[in-house]
User: What shape does this take?
Amino acid sequence: MAKRRSSSKEYLDMNTDDFLSYGLDDDGEEEGEEEEDVEEEAPEDEMDEGDENETSEDDETISDVTSKPVTLQLIKKWKSSLESNEISVLKDVAKAVAASVATLTGNKNVQPYTVKGTQEFNSLIKICLQHVPNMLDKRIPQKSKKALPSSDSQWHRVRSSIKLHLCNLLELVQHLTDRSMIVLLLKQVQHLARFLVCYPRLLKSASKALVKLWSTSTSEVSIVSFVTLRHFAAATSATFLTTLVKSMYLAFVANSKFTSPRTHPHITLMKNSLVEIFSLDHSTTYQHGFVYIRQLAIQLRTATTSHKKESYQSVYNWQFIHCIHLWCRVLAECQSDTLKPLIFPLVQVTTGVMRLAPSSRYFPLRLYCISSLNLLASQTGTLIPVASPLVDILGSADMQKKPKPSTAKPINFDYILKVTKAQLQTKAFQDAVLEKCLDGLLNYFTIHSHSIAFPELVLPIVTRLRKLCKETKQINVKQEIKQLIDKLEETSAEVTSTRSAVGFGPADSDTVERWEAARKRKTTAVESMYEKRKTKAAKHERIQEISETSKITKKRPKTKETKKKKAKKVKLDDAVVEADDTVEDFTNWSDSDDDDALAS
Assistant: This one.
């Protein structure tokens, strides 16, 4: 630079010190740096109250300026526009509803509209639910079942407005508490399901919220939530169905921890819903069934090898048992060649659970597993030998002992997995076990009563029952077993006499199937006995339900009270209200063994 531009070099040499000290004060610090540090270090709590008031006032001024109040006249104008099918007004209506939802949820962000009155809020929600769906159906009609609204020519005009409208509905569903209002909103979401499918992220969050409502709400809300999810699954791809099935199954497991007369209807509702969802796509069902039945098998293997109380409790709980019953129902009702390979591992897991703990206290659990296997066998035609475990239960030591005198009520095995030690030798326990075992045996033999091999199937069981009938000292057990033996032998003799006249052999499977199909048109002795017991049991259950619902909560026994502790009468608007202290809090007791969750 000194050779080519000498003048510039001389200028730099003369002014170098000034350039280096530019922007610094006398102490060598940058100008303005100290002020910035002071501003950063000043804590927020040292601000004057006057400054805070000024800030809030400024925010209010901004919100007042930018937000337009929603009046009844404006809502009336929007209503007439929606009735005229003007699609452009949807944007304003959606923004106004979003403002009201923000007020409901506590969102403090500035909204383009403000809804302050209750009448305005109700009128706005009313036109949103009544007129917006009709306008969308007319302006963006559904051309075919598989056609999405995104293929319509007007989709680009209303895409953001429809998304905001759907978000508003989902926010209201999650924050409202009135059941009738939630049901109404869910029906609106169900009606607009074809639009919701066009937004994958919103669809995912919507399905998550609906699964939560389905698994935790009352029956009416749960049913409407499931129907909406069913619409989502029918309108989307297999990928969404896989995610939906997984989330619903995990929600079912999480909410089936306890079983009581109060929770049993909801658990049954969830099972029915899952069976219907699994029936939509059998290949997806096979994938999930393989994974979840394998998880049950791994958990059972861990409990079998570890021999610890905790591992037993991880299997002997309501979640595990409900999962077994659910998969038995799925394989029984979703009959296809795709799902047949899952029958054998499921039966192996169920029988392994029955053999895990030989204690008589777990008879209710074993009988529940046997009823699930009978259900699977009746629908699939699979031979699952459950008669031998039932005879083992009848011949157990606790069933042969003389029952102790007790005034206890009859035990309902539908809501318990094990009994206490005090209940083991009571007459109520023995009667309940005898009734369940006889129902299981009759159900099992009724399923196979039309089989051409029925005499060979019955023979070993009849031999064991005769021996048990001789050894037992219980008169009622003897009478029931003798009656069962008579019906089995009568059916066996009928099958033997009928098949002796046929001219085909066991190798001719097609002819055997036609013979068995013809036999199913006739009622056998075992089948008629089983139907009579079912009718009698149904009447007994109905009487029990009526008696339970008609019970009135009894008041606590009166005790001596001082004058100060007596109820005071308070006069409110010329009405006398007595302070009553007799409300009792009833708690559903459950077994401690049922507290462990199913490992996922």
Summary: The beta strands are 68-69, 113-114, 569-572, 575-578. Confidence is low (pLDDT under 50) at residues 19-65, 552-600.
